[in-house]
Design brief:
Layout lengths: L9 H31 L14 H23 L10 H9 L2 H24 L9 E2 L8 E2 L1 H23 L27 H47 L21 H29 L4 E2 L2 E2 L7 H9 L4 H17 L1 H9 L8 H24 L15 H11 L22 H18 L5 H18 L2 H18 L10 H8 L10 H9 L7 H21 L9 H19 L14 H4 L8 H20 L4 H4 L3 H11 L5
Antiparallel strand pairs: 1-2, 3-4
Helix pairs in contact: 1-2, 1-7, 2-4, 2-7, 4-5, 5-6, 5-7, 6-7, 8-9, 8-11, 9-18, 10-18, 11-18, 11-19, 18-21, 19-21, 19-23, 21-23
Length: 655
């Protein structure tokens, strides 16, 4: 018997494919750099201004470094699925409080600095972008503030682009999920337009946004430069310039109160800044467009040429990395829809370590769908906070002993002598103090005056005094103030009444970033967070449905039909859990959502598009599954209450 073939990890197969697409996207970025190189170059010679083997080509290669910085950044931070945050403030906090934010700013700053150096080198002498003006024969050399301002201007652009990159989550590789409708003929769950169509649709937006950002920064730039950057940038430049030139002491401060104010210089800055932003936007678009293509190679699945295609695919379905998992389920969905030969291979692959290929695929798909019900149950039945802090019940002894040993002792240890004997005569100072004041303290604690009757007398005295000193209106005001203080200091709940002060704050424009919308909270529960898993959820649902329906004709061993009842129960359970969460008795609006039904009297929409897509996919899959096996439901074991619940979940009246 031949030794089993070792399956190649799906991550390596995907990496090689993404690397090839990376190279293709880089070629288009180089083309964009060539066009930008033509615009920023000197037009003294018409031929050499565009000839690729001249200065224009060299500038294009140098500008390609700025675009490559964006690609390197995207490779390190790419993910599939939109970022889910409960509020705008939460989204901002997720974007800023991470190492990715620092990495993003650093790469954009380097890209902007490199572009500024290439632009300064490519400019003509009329632009006056030399670091030092030598002056006339009778003048001392002095720093030129124009290149200093230009570098600060590009730094401002880098900070603006970094903020947009983080807040808009440009690290996402978008994989759009198609909504099923009777009018569409395509069965694919992710419908992508050709690259040429995508670029023609987005090109006007790229040009418009780049011009707006470039010219807006050129307008605000001189003010920010004068208030924040000018003196620091001047001192740093002067420090390095002194290594090569001699300057008078008067050069320690920038000349005048205002930065360079030449109109043509600021116009050139705005145009060059727009070109840099355009290069960044094009690089981001090309990276997302090329790497977000279908997992096919020459019209075949990525694992088609592997030594063990099924093993590599199963390896990807079990991956913990969300990018690998998303592409693996996408490929599985394509196989279940369009490649009957691969489906037959999966059905025939029954002698595999860890179970048959189909059983492992089923287990991986069930894990994705069970994640929905698990998150819903965690929301509906939250664990107490103290549960996570308890010790392991299997080994309570050592942990408890270790904790006790670390606590400081604040009292004397318990006495082991016979308590019936007379107390010994005190010797030390502490014992004498205890003997003198101990009986007095015990008399207060053990006195019968401190009883419920005594408490009642004290309460009656306080009530009598308040009635004599305060009017009913004053007592009511004090009571309301105490209640407001209690609401303000207590943790807010999703269903309880909000504090009036906080509610007024949330209604104001200042409180808008802190409102937790119903849609975002629902997406976070159903699709997971911080990144949405809607793509693998839809692909897992479609794959199970298509594989089971295809098994009626392609499963020669007849083993797949045995899992029809479990899949029907899985779909039914998931649909019922989702409908219970989306229904009126499910997820309640958060107290911060002041425009919701419970707070503002306005009808609150409980329909969220992504969640509705998941519910419709499950219902369509369940109804098509029951229709395909309608003649064999008794034989496969879908009978009784399971069948009735499945019909109710799929909204089927007659099967």
């Amino acid at each position: 018997m031949a030794a089993p073939v070792k399956s190649r990890p799906y991550r390596r197969i995907l990496t090689s494919t993404l690397h090839r697409r990376f190279v293709h996207a880089s070629a288009f970025v180089l083309l964009a750099c060539y066009v930008i190189s033509f615009f920023i170059g000197v037009k003294s010679s018409l031929f050499w201004s565009w000839f690729p083997l001249g200065p224009c080509g060299v500038r294009a290669l140098l500008l390609f470094v700025s675009g490559l910085c964006v690609f390197i950044l995207r490779v390190g931070q790419m993910h599939v699925g939109a970022r889910i945050a409960t509020s705008h403030f939460h989204n901002l906090r997720l974007a800023i409080l991470s190492f990715n934010s620092l990495q993003t700013v650093v790469w954009y700053l380097f890209s902007a600095w490199w572009f500024s150096e290439v632009y300064k080198w490519s400019s003509s002498a009329d632009a006056q972008l030399n670091w030092v003006n030598p002056g006339k024969s009778y003048e001392r050399s002095h720093l030129n503030e124009r290149p200093i301002y230009l570098h600060c201007f590009f730094i401002m652009l880098a900070l603006v682009q970094s903020s947009m990159h983080l807040y808009l989550d440009m690290d996402e590789v978008p994989v759009p999920v198609a909504k099923r409708s009777p009018l569409t003929t395509s069965r694919r769950t992710h419908r992508l337009a050709p690259l040429s169509v995508q670029f023609s649709n987005i090109a006007p937006n790229i040009v418009f946004e780049s011009v707006i950002i470039g010219f807006a920064t050129a307008v605000i730039g001189p003010i920010l430069y004068m208030l924040i950057f000018r003196r620091t940038a001047w001192s740093w430049t002067l420090y390095f310039a002194k290594l090569f030139w001699n300057f008078p002491r008067s050069a320690a401060d920038p000349p005048g109160l205002l930065p360079p104010s030449n109109i043509m210089f600021h116009l050139r800055s705005a145009i060059s800044g727009s070109l840099l932003v355009m290069l960044w936007q094009i690089s981001n678009f090309l990276f997302s467009a090329f790497l977000g293509q279908v997992p096919l190679k020459k019209g075949k699945p990525l694992t088609h040429g592997a030594a063990d295609p099924n093993g590599s695919l199963i390896n990807g379905l079990k991956s913990k990395k969300e990018t690998v998992l998303a592409f693996a389920f996408w490929e599985l969905c394509l196989i279940s829809q369009e490649f009957p030969d691969r489906r037959k291979e999966i059905f025939r692959d029954i002698d595999r370590s860890g179970g048959s290929a189909w059983s492992q695929i089923l287990k991986a798909s069930e894990g994705v769908l069970n994640g929905i019900t698990s998150r819903i149950q965690e929301y509906q039945n939250p664990l107490p906070q103290a549960a996570g802090a308890t010790d392991d019940p299997k080994e309570p002894g050592p942990k408890t002993q270790e904790m006790v040993q670390t606590l400081p002792r604040i009292t004397q240890p318990s006495k082991n002598e016979n308590i019936l004997l007379a107390s010994p005569k005190p010797n030390t100072r502490s014992e004498k103090f205890e003997a003198a004041f101990g009986p007095v303290a015990k008399s207060y604690g053990q006195s019968q005056d401190w009883t419920p009757a005594a408490k009642a007398r004290a309460r009656a005295a306080i009530t009598h005094a308040s009635n004599a000193l305060l009017s009913p209106e004053q007592k009511r005001t004090i009571s309301n103030s105490a209640q407001e203080l209690k609401l303000l200091t207590s943790p807010p709940s999703a269903s309880g009444p909000p504090n009036p002060i906080i509610q007024q704050f949330m209604k104001s424009p200042v409180g808008l970033p802190f409102r937790q919308s119903f849609a975002n909270r629902l997406r976070g529960i159903v699709l997971d967070s911080p990144h949405s898993k809607i793509a693998p959820i839809i692909d897992a649902t479609e794959s199970l449905k298509c594989m089971l329906i295809a098994s009626l004709e392609e499963d020669q061993f007849g083993k797949v039909q045995a899992d029809v009842p479990s899949v029907v129960k899985l779909f039914t359970k998931t649909i019922m859990a989702l409908e219970s969460l989306v229904g009126k008795d499910g997820l309640k609006p958060h107290w911060s959502e002041v425009d919701s039904e419970s707070l503002g009297g306005v009808q609150h929409s409980r329909s969220v598009e992504q969640v509705e897509i998941v519910i419709n996919a499950l219902k369509n899959g369940l109804s098509e599954l029951l229709a395909a096996f309608s003649l064999y439901l008794n034989e496969v074991g879908v009978v009784g209450q399971d069948l009735q619940l499945a019909r109710e979940a799929a909204k089927i009246t007659d099967v």
